[in-house]
Amino acid sequence: MKSRVVMGGACGAPFLTGRWEHLAMISYACPAELLEPLVPNGTELDAPDGTPRMSLVGFMFRGTRLLGVPVPLHTDFEEVNLRFYVRRHADDGDRRGVVFIRELVPRRAIAAIALRVYQERYLAVPMDHRVDLVGGAIPIGGTVEYGWRFAGSRQRMRCIVSGEAADVEPASEAEFITEHYWGYAAQRDGSTVEYAVAHPRWRVHPVSETLVEGDLAPLYGADFARVLASPPVSAFVATGSAIAVGRAHRLPARSRSGGD
Asked: Which of 123, 79, 72, 69 lies closest to 240 in space, CA to CA?
């Protein structure tokens, strides 16, 4: 399958390439008033049914290259991010994207590069993972888990896979969560940068059980921790694919909602 976004034009050649694998995606209904202060200028909250979603996503990053060059000791690592969803009205149509509340990685150099290039909210913490799927080349069950330590305590997220991966249904919750091909990051001066994220359409495994464990308030704040303690709206494990992240470019100065 072809990627939905092709690197080039305003985005230039890919800044980062690699593979995202075993994406555990647990999503929650989140009050708009918690997210609105974090919406970058030029974008607006996107919601599939009028209720914004916030997702805790853990995955393996493999074969990482910056500008085509592998960085020694930094090619394979875990990432866990907390994100929500926005939309930008561009000249070529609506662009659906994600905004990161916090991104966790185990390498300080990765966090430093992301902060410098995108001003994303990266944090380097000790991390581990467990991917134990059964069924051979076509997994039909098992566990996908990502863990980390922050403020002296351990936190983790876990999905129990309960079936073979299938194509994402059109207009489904899974399509809304996985089919975002742009990233947006608010900058210190109030502007916004945009970058493309290219990958094929993913297949997803159903999930029968989830776990989000630990004291998350020191990391995400009390309000977001309460949302993460509530029952999720959806959960699944995406198979992943090769990805390419474009170079960041600054959006023209416009109103907060992206209108005139």
From this structure: 79
**Tokens 């907060």 sit at which residue?**
256
Show the tokens assigned to 250: 């600054």
Domain 9-128+174-201+221-250 fold: Acetoacetate decarboxylase-like (2.40.400)
What pLDDT is attached to residue 75? 83
What gap in Å lies between CA 196 and CA 186, rounded to an integer?
A: 15
Tens of pLDDT, residues 166-218: 999 999 999 999 999 999 999 888 899 999 999 999 999 999 999 999 999 99
**Half-sphere exposure (Cβ direction) of 32: Cα atoms closer than 13 Å:** 10
Angle at 134 between CA 133 and CA 137, to 5 degrees: 90
Strands 192-198, 182-186: pairing is antiparallel
Helix or strand run (H / E) with residue 92 = none
DSSP-based three-state secondary structure for 108: helix
Ramachandran region, residue 194 (left: φ > 0; alpha: ψ -120 to 50; beta: rest):
beta
Q: Rounded to whole angstroms, how far apart are CA atoms 168 and 161?
A: 16
Q: What is the helix (H) or strand (E) element at residue 158, kind and residue range?
A: strand 153-161
Whether the Cβ atoms of residue 3 and residue 20 lie closer than 8 Å to each other: no
pTM over 0.85: yes
- What are 228-239's pLDDT values in tens digits? 999 999 999 999
Contact between residue 247 and residue 13 where contact means Cβ atoms under 8 Å apart: yes
pLDDT in tens, 28-64: 999 999 999 999 999 999 998 899 999 999 999 999 8
